[in-house]
Write a structure and sequence with these properties.
2 copies of one chain form a homodimer.
Chain A (H helix, E strand, L loop, with lengths): L7 H8 L9 E7 L5 H4 E7 L7 E10 L2 H8 L10 E2 L5 E7 L11 E4 L10 E5 L3 E4 L5 H5 L4 H11 L8 E4 L5 H13 L2 E6 L5 H11 L3 E4 L8 H7 L5 E4 L4 H7 L7 E4 L8 E3 L1 H5 L4 E4 L2 H6 L6 H15 L8 E5 L3 H8 L7 E5 L1
Parallel strand pairs in A: 9-10, 9-12, 10-11, 12-13, 13-15, 16-17
Antiparallel strand pairs in A: 1-2, 1-4, 3-5, 3-7, 3-17, 5-6, 6-8
Chain lengths: 358, 358
């Protein structure tokens, strides 16, 4: 084996298919074991997978750092990849080359991955046709890079649990999160009023202003949520039929108290790392329903028929195109500076989403 | 006015319709203010309401003392009657006389009241045709007296939240309650396996034996519910698709841990006076759904169309007739000895339902 050691790269270059215009290598943020992302992630120069008949070579353009990506690397998420793995599960890429049996995509198309775990923090990937969804190229790059998790979560939670009509209201905590901002904008586009709960903070008015400019009808702090003044608010807006919960603990119990008779609360996150606590009377006498939502699972359930997924993505792109749905506040960070992005994304009260650009 | 004072009763007797065979009086357990039942209830000789064209004179035969009756008298229930009120909301009576416009009932029929609050702890009542449901007379009196709350609650919870097939399993706490015993029997008749959680107690084996004889497949204590040995149980029976919760607090969280992916927990009581606490992960990654059930509200929702209610009652009577559904262990107490029944029904670990007989 020693004989060929120095020859191999040359041999590999020689054997590369003529059609392959891009180098058969990829720079990727790889982790070989679970742990703190800053410690276990390494930027590696990897050999790209073979294209084969069914593969699609995607050049990644931009990929965000989401909380679930961090938890997946830490090993605390409900879905974990085989190791070693490439970090990241969302992003947008451009098709460079397709296998001979690929029919629905062509070079130049913008695509987003719909499977998880996938590994989007790399310059190049070869993925299967079925794991990619083509999106229009008339939307901003950062919107495309952050389309498939947060706006989709917001869209489904608004669509699938209660039949909301214009003039109805919903309430949500963690309203300044990526999902929260998408909820505000999609609801506003549909004429649904939003009551948005956020934690108190030094620059509160700045955040209230930002959420209001996105279309938030009411912004309240968690402390205000417990005060009798909330009754005044409900003279202006109907009690919410739907509550979206990303926190847990007291925030959630307080929010639930304002929900309408027979309303639904959907839990999609647990930022406070505390359980959801519900008085028995809310179930029996108020007939509230508590459900959960996980976008990853929803997407997995669409593998047989992608019509609902495609329809949703096109609806969201339409909102983006009309200026009714914008990307969250983002900070673009070159892939090689990933340590800066990781550090910023794990800082408390971060309101800017870190986007790795390749 | 004074002139006629002594004449009035005579005049009233003279004006009474000839068809009225029973005395126009009723002995009733009345409360004029909310408070501890033993203190505020009084046995009173009351004038019965006029029959009118639409009234049905019902001679009550037997009426149970349910926990909700106690809470209603205490003033802590979600539904309270105008005061003064007659206690009790369940029972069976026999039609004595009907108003001229009553078409669906005739003297001799057995009836159960379907409205609440109603006041069943009395010898005679005049009720509207629409508030009564005729039941077959081929079932035991104590079954009829205890039919409209607990067996109906059990029936609806088994029917309305998950589509259960023979061989599926359900789990319930407070399994020795009135509802719990009905759940065991109805589920057994349908071929659905039951995992029944009860509190540890001095005469545990006796209770286990009784529930097993009703058709319980598995009986476990709340302590056993937390032990790894539960995994052995789930080698014999599938994980439950449905959990029925009448307790709250730790019992409920422990029960929820054993539910199947995408399963449903229905809360219909809160005996522990503690809230329901759910880990966020159960909502997101296990996709469990939490709902509530209140029989009183369900019945109110059927006022326009009683087909589902009638169908359920006939199904339950059929199970009773076939010996598949029995009354809970009962103690019959004459109406005048109501203090004994109240005291017994409020004692902890009471396994015998107190039935007032008129």
């Amino acid at each position: 084996m020693g004989l060929f050691r120095g020859v191999r790269p040359l041999l590999a270059a020689f054997l590369r298919p003529l059609s392959a215009s891009a180098p058969a290598r990829s720079l990727a943020l790889v982790y070989e074991r679970h742990g703190e992302p800053a410690r276990v992630l390494q930027l590696k120069d990897q050999e790209r997978a073979e294209l084969g008949h069914f593969g699609v070579h995607v050049k990644m353009l931009a990929a965000p750092v989401n909380p679930a990506d961090i938890n997946m690397i830490q090993g605390t998420y409900a879905l974990l990849p085989d190791l070693p793995a490439v970090g990241g599960n969302e992003g947008v890429g451009q098709v460079v080359e397709i296998g001979s049996h690929v029919t629905s995509l062509k070079p130049g198309d913008w695509v987003i991955p719909i499977d998880a775990p996938v590994g989007t923090w790399r310059t190049d990937a070869v993925l299967s046709e079925g794991s990619l969804l083509k999106i229009p190229r008339n939307i901003p790059l950062l919107c495309a890079a952050t389309l498939s998790v947060n706006p989709c979560t917001a869209y489904r939670m608004l669509a699938d649990f209660e039949t909301l009509e214009p003039g109805d209201s919903i309430i949500q905590n963690a309203a300044n999160s990526g999902v929260g901002q998408a909820v505000i904008q999609i609801a506003a586009a549909l004429g649904i009023k939003t009551i948005n709960v956020i934690r108190d903070r030094p620059n509160l008015q700045e955040l209230v202003h930002r959420l209001t400019s996105l279309g938030a009808d009411h912004v309240v702090t968690e402390e205000m949520l417990r005060k009798p003044e909330m009754n005044d608010l409900f003279k202006k807006v109907p009690k919410p039929r739907l509550a979206l919960n990303c926190v847990g603990g007291r925030s959630t119990t307080d929010m639930l108290r304002h929900i309408q008779q027979k309303g639904t609360m959907v839990t999609y996150g647990g930022m406070a790392k505390q359980p959801v606590t519900v008085p028995v009377s809310a179930f029996i006498f108020k007939d509230v329903k508590l459900h959960g939502f996980w976008m990853t699972q929803w997407k997995k359930n669409q593998t047989q028929n992608k019509d609902r997924l495609t329809g949703m993505i096109l609806n969201l792109c339409d909102l983006i195109h009309k200026g009714q749905l914008t990307a969250p506040v983002c900070t673009e960070v070159p892939l090689k500076d990933y340590q800066i992005a990781l550090e910023a994304s794990m800082r408390p009260f971060t309101s800017s989403k870190q986007i790795l650009v390749m």
